[in-house]
Amino acid sequence: MLKVGVLGAGHLGKIHLKLLNQSEKYELVGFYDASSENAEKISAEFGYKKFDIIEDLIEAVDVVDVVTPTLSHFEVAKKTITAGKHLFIEKPITNTFAEAEELIALAKKHGVKGQVGHVERFNPAFRAVASRIENPMFIEAHRLAEFNPRGTDVPVVLDLMIHDIDAVLSVVKSKVKNINASGVSVISDTPDIANARIEFENGCVANLTASRISMKNMRKSRFFQRDAYISVDFLEKKCEVVKMKDAPEKEDEYAMILQNAEGVKKQIYFDNPDVSPNNAILDELETFADAINNNTIPIVTLEQGAEALRVANGVIKSFSK
Predict the structure, then answer these.
(1) Boundaries of every domain in the chain
(2) Is residue 266 very low, low, confident or very high in pLDDT (cuts 50, 70, 90)?
(3) Each residue of 201-212: pLDDT tens digit?
(4) What is the rounded distance in angstroms from the CA atom of residue 135 to the CA atom of residue 204?
């Protein structure tokens, strides 16, 4: 088993600690938290070993799981990589794209693996249809959340929208050509609601909306491609595939048939792929262990995490145009 330590024991850090402690692929060595009071409380309640010095924890493990606030990501990740330890780091990868590029270069230099915590890649509904999303040309995503003070230190783009940016980048095999966006600050110092139109070189357009001041939660995406429409409900963990094929010469009286102005007939087929329940956070952590043990490429690489951040920063920059 790989020895692992967690940096950061806030809300998400505690979840990581619990899952790593349960995992059969890791041996949880301990954790570090900047708040000694919080560290004492967690250690007393759950029995996890607390470290008072970050470097001591890094030295004691094979893998470091970074779940600290974004502003500290670069500093602790750099210490981890230069110590020759593998790195799992929560999203966004760093505060700036330049920092992300430096981490990528360091990881290559020191021969360590890294994975970014874009957990929606492991959402069972998205996993059920990801292989069926082929050359989408229009994507629409809505990620709406009720207000929660946690996370308001960063714009809603880095808090919420970046999940959909990463999901979109994982299925659109083309470079981003143009970004237009608008954002509004309602209750925070940074935008709480934002809309972005991302255009790709192959003609695909993604229209993303994110809000953290909504009356109800919603996490839905729709992918439109030639002869198919695919919907994913990340919150309810449901998905649907609607396909259109040339209608057969002998039509079933119950079949759904569409006919265009030129007389071409298409039959509509509905498909609800099986969604296998999972714990997405545990899956992302354990697939990283597999990548280390088998010397394979992690599912969400540092490079992919950096590209999601670059596009997210492009959205934020577009606010001031």
Answers:
(1) 2-112, 121-279+311-318
(2) confident
(3) 999 999 999 999
(4) 8
**CATH of 121-279+311-318 among 2.60.40.3080, 3.30.2350.10, 3.30.930.10, 3.30.360.10:** 3.30.360.10
Alpha-carbon distance values, 169 to 83, 135, 158, 166 (Å): 31, 12, 15, 5
- Length of the chain in terms of residues written: 321
Q: What is the mean pLDDT of residues 164-192?
A: 94
Q: Which two tokens stand for residue 37?
A: 């009071």
Entry pTM: 0.91
Mean pLDDT of the chain: 93
Strand blocks (E) in 96-227: 114-117, 138-144, 176-184, 193-200, 205-211, 218-225
Query: Identity (one letter) of the amino acid at 288?
Result: F
**Within 13 Å and on the Cβ side, how many CA atoms surround 288?**
33
The fourth-level CATH superfamily of domain 2-112 is NAD(P)-binding Rossmann-like Domain (3.40.50.720)
CB-CB contact of 156 with 211 (8 Å): yes
Determine the straight-line distance between the first and last CA of the chain, rounded to whole angstroms.
50
Place of tokens 């900047």: 34
Answer for the pair 208, 180: CB distance below 8 angstroms, yes or no.
Answer: no
Q: Is 239 helix (H, G, I), strand (E, B) or coil?
A: strand
| Segment 215-232, tens digit of pLDDT | 999 999 999 998 899 999
